[in-house]
Write a structure and sequence with these properties.
The chain is an alpha+beta fold and 528 residues long. It is built from 21 helices and 12 strands. The chain has helices at residues 3-17, 22-25, 43-51, 66-75, 82-93, 112-119, 132-141, 153-168, 170-174, 177-197, 207-223, 237-256, 269-300, 309-316, 321-335, 337-352, 354-367, 376-379, 383-395, 428-432, 477-494; strands at residues 56-57, 96-101, 104-109, 203-204, 402-406, 411-413, 416-418, 422-426, 495-499, 508-511, 513-516, 522-526. Helix 10 (177-197) crosses helix 21 (477-494) and helix 12 crosses helix 13 (269-300). The relative contact order is 0.16. The chain binds protoporphyrin IX containing FE (HEM). Protoporphyrin IX containing FE (HEM) binds next to helix 15, helix 16 and helix 21. Its cofactor is heme.
Length: 528
């Protein structure tokens, strides 16, 4: 296909997408009042360029060489601050640039308009990035591919369609509330234990580590329909093995992908990566098998199989047993530190901003007087709580840069034409921190998300996509929100949260996800 034909096709696609395609309806945040959705597309400019034959090619893109990128990463110290490199490079090269490092050849886009253009041409089966090392592990062990992130195409779509009903339909997700509330109860008991044991009888050290256990327990209680005991004083050995394997696998995943295959026999990373996957898969499979045995016992005893997520997956016959093993494992991988880091940052800011914390406390107390445990219906009357979570995700988008690997079509973005199999990097951190989109972008200001904020706020809908967008967006969004809303509301019902005296400012660092660069220690003072 010639480049101008490809451009015309891509633009037709864009124009259709502009009329809110079904695939994207559920994805991005709805535009704020008064926002013109057509602003998302640079259709006229690109179409003019196409007609005039002015589209440029990927080779015309500005950007650093591999050596320059290595210089920025390792000599200028951005290796664990790649979120900040988005802004540095945007300033140097403009809003769209090409960068190469190791096996990666990326086209970076750093304005909401350009992000929108990529997404609107992502095709039927969007893919984030190729993860050859995950696929290789699956092939090594003869396992099925999962929904995230190791599969793509119609296979991914089939698996994802099996998961969506129980994960994304609000009516279905509400059913998980009692289980999540139990886990939040355990979190409160854990906070009470830790603070009462501390020297000043108030401080919980490394809050993110505790919330990690909460995230692990919360998501496992839904996925495996069993409690693992992550928040207990003595964590059961198998649970500990599970937690260690998840952490080890995710950490090694970043390293393994950078080294060539021939180095696997020489360097220790690949064999450790395989061992961590084996451990993690093994525990997940035995938890699922245990649940299957329970269900079989119920059924053979003449009782109906009662359960929620896992029971549904196992009984719906939409996925094979092998596919259930891997989908549940991969859901777990997506669902732990995303939620726990967001909660950690929210508490960090609430502790430093008394006014915001008191406003949140007032809201929760007025909806649930006498420290009544909130139920899902209450959440719709807590706009400030939701604003706190949104603002946290804006300042610290857990996934600071997402990907789209467009393999099906040639695409046009800005005034460039790109061949099939182009890997785009969507610079969400840069768009969330863009002063043109969010005035006072570096400030924690939950009010900006409130409808009564006076309409001074008009950001482009693609500038804030914390859960991604379109059919490939986060499948755990509703569950994650429920966990965070319940945990935050109940923590502020019971405690006033304060920073330790003289506590340093905590910056984020990139470890695939955006995480605190140092431990966050907070004081939890019981409310009268
Ligand atoms: C604050 C919490 C969370 C955030 C900010 C978050 C963010 C994201 C983002 C940005 C993506 C990529 C979407 C895209 O490419 O458009 C994603 C994908 C995904 N997330 Fe989440 N997530 C969170 C919690 C969860 C939870 C609790 C689960 C598990 C139930 C989960 C499971 C997944 C899965 C399986 C995918 C891949 C979906 C696919 O490829 O089809 N996430 N998430």
């Amino acid at each position: 296909m010639s480049s101008s034909a490809a451009a015309a096709r891509a633009l037709r696609l864009c124009a259709r997408c502009c009329r809110t395609p079904a695939a994207h309806r559920a994805g991005p945040e709805p535009p704020l009042r008064g926002f013109d959705a057509r602003r998302t597309l640079n259709v006229q400019a690109a179409s003019g360029a196409a007609e005039a034959g002015k589209l440029k090619s990927i080779d015309d893109l500005p950007g650093p060489s591999s050596t320059t990128t290595l210089y920025w990463l390792f000599l200028r110290g951005y290796a664990d601050k790649s979120h900040l490199l988005q802004d540095v490079q945007k300033n140097l090269y403009g809003p769209i640039w090409r960068s190469r490092i190791g096996p990666f050849d990326l086209v970076n886009v750093a304005t909401p308009e350009l992000v929108a253009q990529v997404i609107q041409q992502e095709g039927r089966y969007p893919c984030r990035a190729e993860l050859p090392h995950w696929k290789e592990y699956r092939d090594l062990r003869g396992q099925a591919y999962g929904s995230f992130p190791s599969s793509s195409g119609p296979e991914w779509y089939r698996m994802r369609s099996a998961l969506n009903p129980k994960m994304l339909k609000p009516r279905e997700v509400v059913a998980y509330a009692p289980v999540i509330q139990q886990v939040v109860g355990d979190l409160l008991r854990r906070v009470e234990l830790l603070r009462s044991r501390s020297r000043d009888r108030a401080t919980v050290s490394d809050v993110a580590a505790e919330l990690y256990k909460f995230g692990f327990e919360g998501i496992s209680s839904i996925l495996f329909e069993s409690r693992l005991g992550c928040l207990e004083e003595d964590i059961p050995p198998d649970t500990l093995r599970f937690i260690t394997a998840v952490t080890e696998m995710l950490t090694l995943s970043e390293t393994v992908v950078l080294f060539p295959r021939w180095s696997r026999g020489v360097l220790p990373f690949w064999s450790r990566f395989v061992r961590a996957w084996d451990d993690l898969y093994d525990v997940a499979r035995s938890l699922i098998d245990r649940r299957i045995a329970e269900i079989e016992a119920q059924v053979s005893g003449g009782e109906p199989a009662e359960g929620m997520f896992l029971t549904y997956l196992l009984s719906s016959d939409r996925l094979s047993r092998a596919e259930v093993y891997i989908s549940v494992t991969e859901l777990l991988l997506g669902g732990v530190d995303t939620t726990s880091n967001t909660l950690s940052w929210a508490l960090y800011h609430l502790a430093r901003d008394r006014r915001a914390q008191e406003r949140l406390h007032r809201e929760v107390s007025s909806v649930c007087p006498g420290r009544r445990e909130p139920i899902t219906e209450d959440l719709s009357r807590m706009p400030y709580l939701k604003a706190v979570v949104k603002e946290t995700l804006r300042l610290y988008p857990v996934v600071p840069g997402n990907g789209r690997f467009i393999s099906e079509d040639e695409v046009v973005v800005g005034d460039y034409w790109f061949p099939k199999r182009t890997q785009f990097h969507l610079c969400h951190y840069a768009t969330c921190h863009d002063e043109e989109q969010f005035v006072g972008a570096e400030l924690f200001a939950p009010e900006r998300w409130l409808r009564d904020a006076g309409g001074s706020y008009r950001h482009h809908p693609y500038s804030f996509l914390p859960f991604g967008v379109g059919v490939r967006a986060c499948v755990g969004k509703r569950l994650a929100e429920m966990e965070m809303f319940f945990a935050l509301s109940r923590l502020v019902q019971h405690y006033e949260v304060q920073p330790e005296p003289g506590a340093p400012v905590v910056e984020p660092k990139t470890r695939t996800l955006l995480v605190p660069a140092r431990p966050i220690n907070l004081r939890f003072l019981p409310r009268a």
